[in-house]
Amino acid sequence: MEEIEQKSADEPGRIGQPHSKTIRNFAIVGCALVVLILGGTWAVNYFTVNTKLQHVLSTDPRNRVCKANAHFGGWVNPRTLVFDVTGITGDATRLDIFRAFLEFAEAMKDRHFTKVVLAARGTSKFTLDGNYFQELGREYSTQNPMYTVRTFPPHLAAMDGTKPFSEYDGGLFAVLQKEMEQFTDFSDQWYLKDLQAGSPSLASDASGAATFDPCESVRESDPHCGWKPHWEDSGTSVSAIDGVKTEFLSIESTEPDGIDFGNLHYADLRICFENGKLCGGKHVGVGVTVHGMLASAGYDSEYSTAVRLKFDDDKPISQMWGISDSHDTLFPYGKEGQFLSQLTQHNKLVLEFSYYEKAARTVTFDLAGLTEKMKLDNLELSSVKESKGGAEVNTTRSEGSAANVGPGPTTQPQIHTDPDEAGPKPTAQARTDTRCPQIETGTFVLSPGPAGHFWEFCTNGERKVCFSQETTEFCFK
Questions:
Q1: Listed residue (433, 434, 436) closest to 477, CA to CA
Q2: How far apart are CA 127 and CA 107, in angstroms?
Q3: Phi and psi of 361, rounded to 5°?
């Protein structure tokens, strides 16, 4: 009887052992299925989209500065494509990252997605319509890349569906500048801020000294990417002939004055000093050099051009400025000293001028720091003598005349001084013609020789400057 009871007690143990093994087998099979599913999902993503991205990043040496992965939305939605930037090296630029994205779009041009997500380190930042992504890929080999850079941001949507970037209207150069600034902002929001937060130094490698320069590739098309207004000093050069010391102070405009083959260029406001004083004679003392042929005031006024200018929030002023022999520098002829004085008293100059047979355009100069720079370099600010035709002229401006203005070049453009007519001294009525502001009189000294006189007058609304010395007299238009 005891033996029977003992067997009965043992029977549940025998029945329980196979049950426990079954549970373990199910668990192993389940884990294997999970691994297979995850592995299969990764494999599908890798061989379908990510392998093409890695090929793009590895075959073009310029793209090796970018580390990124591509996968389906949530790894399982084949209608959504995710482009995830996971790292950049120290010598990467914004254009490098964007070029890698465009080359990936080209590699995927035969596949259509409903939506493309731009992410950084796993965090989704923007979405892009799949049709536009496919268009980018198909046009990559023929489209101007700078056009794509400028027009890309407005196609993006934030993750909440809003449109963070705008399309701009207006003048060509103002729009170009805003579009480039918008592309920079887009790149920062997409990946740069996150990656910098994770690695502030963004070193390219353990031994590399390079730091991240997002404007490196952009500067060829826009030299002002990352630029801040500042006065540049050429340093002092000494003539081996007569020992004259020449020095230039210059600053570029904040807006471009033109574009050539997709590259922006900027006007240059330059001030010339000889032995610490404003240049005179046949050299422009203060002038603005631009990238093109300036429009003259007319057939009989080849070396003058109409301008409008404004200091800070003052009212605009219309003036007639001189043109250098090279026709690419304009300056306030005979008013350069007064103009320099105004430059030191204001923070901003807006100048409107015209290229030959083109519409007027404006450039702006940030004048801050000029006075301090001149004092630091021991350059004289006061007692500046005006220059007319190579003679030194001490000018006195008539009461109620408008403000005087003028700019200057880098390579000392030559002032055209050939007299085109002689004539009698103007009548009192001509001297007060209201169509010509800033009527002036004064004296000048030619060395050696006696003193002479100069005056300005108007005939039919045209301003002229005349000089006389003993029996010699001539006038300039």
A1: 436
A2: 19
A3: -140, 160
d(CA 360, CA 347) in angstroms, rounded, equals 23
What is the Cα–Cα distance from 112 to 326, expressed in whole angstroms? 56
**Domain coordinates in residue numbering, the chain:** 27-197, 232-393+400-416, 419-477
The tens digit of pLDDT for each residue in 210-253 reads 344 556 656 677 787 778 889 999 999 999 999 999 999 999 99
Q: CB atoms < 10 A from the CB of 55, how many?
A: 13
Low-confidence ranges of the chain (pLDDT < 50): 1, 4, 8-9, 13, 200-212, 383-412, 414-451, 469-473
Question: Given phi > 0 = left and psi -120 to 50 = alpha, else beta, which region is 180?
Answer: alpha
The CATH T-level fold of domain 232-393+400-416 is: Immunoglobulin-like (2.60.40)
Nearest to 279 by CA among 386, 355, 138, 402: 386
323 contacts 303 by C-beta, under 8 angstroms: yes
CB-neighbour burial class of residue 31 (10 A; exposed 0-12, middle 13-18, buried 19+)? exposed
Beta-carbon contacts of residue 319 (< 8 Å; ≥ 6 apart): 306, 307, 308, 309, 332, 402, 404, 405, 438
